[in-house]
Design brief:
The chain is α+β, with helices and mostly antiparallel strands and 202 residues long. 30% of the residues lie in helices and 37% in strands. Strand 4 and strand 5 form a beta hairpin.
């Protein structure tokens, strides 16, 4: 299956830990669907780690890795968020956030020490997570006369399309989600059915 049709992510949260000269770096790798969930994750971790000084993070979203962000949260620029993001990218992961919580141990680590610590903590969290490969899905809207329902449903079933919303009247409209790899076949087969039309998007 081509790269465009699948992506790698984690199935459930994973934790990591790194220590250096008294400082503890506690990492959490978490599945992420939207940027808004990042704020909720940070709030949760801040309530759980009240004594921590920094909550540095990076996340990547989208099957094409098109949305991302890295945040140093007060650490010297480029010493925290960037190495965390580097671990996400080197493992070709998306729809994931990694937050590394630092408990300061009283000794400054320097830029090199910080980069190594945040990288190592993020790598440990990924290593303790279950990585899974998933198929990319896309949405389309199908319009058809009621009499074509059986034919449309047969094509949907054979192309692994899932009905999301529907309106059944004399003219029917359904919104479906299906694997991107099946979209071309799905479209070609449906358009052979009389009076069936397809538009992009759910």
């Amino acid at each position: 299956m081509p790269e465009d049709y699948r992506y790698r992510t984690i199935e459930s949260p994973g934790k990591g830990l790194f220590r250096d000269r008294g400082s503890r770096f506690v990492a959490l790798a978490s599945p992420l669907c939207t940027a808004a969930e990042m704020k909720e994750l940070l709030e949760k971790l801040r309530s759980e780690h009240g004594g921590a000084r920094h909550f540095c993070y990076a996340y990547v979203l989208g099957h094409d890795h098109s949305e991302w962000r890295a945040n140093d949260d007060g650490e010297p620029s480029g010493t925290a968020g960037k190495p965390i993001l580097g671990q996400i990218n080197s493992n070709r992961l998306t729809n994931i956030a990694i937050v590394v919580v630092r408990y300061f141990g009283g000794t400054l680590l320097g830029a090199g020490g910080l980069i190594n610590a945040y990288r190592a903590a993020a790598a440990d969290a990924i290593g303790n997570s279950k990585i899974v490969e998933r198929r990319v899905h896309t949405g389309v809207t199908v319009r058809f006369p009621y009499g074509a329902t059986n034919d449309v449903m047969r094509v949907m079933n054979e192309c692994e399309a899932v009905q999301k919303q529907s309106l059944y009247r004399e003219d029917c409209v359904i919104e479906v989600s299906l694997p991107l790899s099946m979209k071309e076949s799905f479209t070609q087969r449906l358009t052979r059915i009389k009076d069936v039309s397809i538009t992009e998007g759910e």
